[in-house]
Every structure is written in C-alpha cells, then in structure tokens.
Amino acid sequence: MRAAHEAGVTILAGTVISEIEWLVRAGLSREAALGAASWSARSYLGLPGLVDQAPADLVVYDTDPTLDTSALAHPSRIILRGRVIA
User: What residues make up the domain containing 31?
Assistant: First the structure.
C-alpha cells in the first residue's frame, strides 16, 4: 500500500475507522489515510473541497486524528447537512 501511495496511485477508503487504521498499518501516513476517507475521496469524486458555498459536513474531535487515529471513534460533535446530530 505504501509503495502504491508513494508511486502516486490514488488510495481511497470508506469512512469506516477500521479502514483508515488498516491503511496506517499498511504504511500510509495518518494524514494520507485520513485523506483517503475524506478530502482525497471528495476530490477524486469531483466534489468541492473547503471553499466558499461548498456543501460540507463537519466532525470535531478533542484530539487531532492525524496524531492519533483512535480519536476517530470519539467525535465530540457531528454536523450533517447543517444539523447537529451528536
């Protein structure tokens, strides 16, 4: 996986935490693994990133998931389609 990523192969994941953790164990950086389930996936699908007027959902964590992917299991706030759901 790491070699494919370093060679420029697009790696994507679902938003399932275990998939992100698997990518990290396979050699991707935490940032690349998180991107595979979020900003990289949006870009691959032709969806806008963080720009004015773009639709966006929001997940907030008390700990930076790029430092500790186990934080993904414990969001402190989730906003989906503009509504707070957790």
Answer: 2-84
